[in-house]
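Dear U.,

For the methods section draft, I wanted the exact inputs and outputs in one place so we can describe them consistently. I've listed the two proteins in the order they'll appear in the manuscript figures. Please don't edit the token lines directly; just add comments below if something needs changing.

First protein:
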Amino acid sequence: MPPGVLADLLSAQKDWLKQQVADGTVESLYGFVGGGGMGIVDVDSHEQMHELLVSSPAFPISDFEITAIGDFEATIDAGIAALRQAASMMPGPPG
């Protein structure tokens, strides 16, 4: 892709991302040293996430990796409870 076209695309992406932050869809953005970046978004469904990604001006040149996140206390407490439940079903002394 010619550098000028890529610069225009990234400029459009920057403006689009600013709008997503302004309306609360994107909670935070971070750039990676050397190019690329990541953001934390607030969506209600997989379909809404898909719609957001494909509406991005940079969609045609982007690779996405999606990782769902949750509240730290809630997720770690659920993990502890699941491990304790599994341990209670195992034969032998608790441990």
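Second protein (the one for the lower panel):
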Amino acid sequence: MTQHEAMNSITIALRKVLKRDNIDITPETDLAEKKVLDSLDRIVFLMELSELTGKEFPEEIDLVKTGILKVHNLVDFLTGAKSISDFAAIKP
């Protein structure tokens, strides 16, 4: 998957979860910090993104603490530039 395809997948998933077409994100956008997604929306978003891309997000990971909700980190994960373990230790 290219960076462009990853950004497109993220945008599609956000549009579906938020039920709106006007989604303005950049690689620097933090979906948690900017309150683009609330806690329930985060789960639904990652499920939708998994369905679109085939990438799995472990349930035991703290999404906010790991920084995976920063768009550039999502892109790195989706493109294979980084693995999920590169972001933070998974809780025991």
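Candidate sentences for the figure legend, describing the second protein: The mean pLDDT is 90. The chain has one domain: 3-83.

Thanks,
Y.
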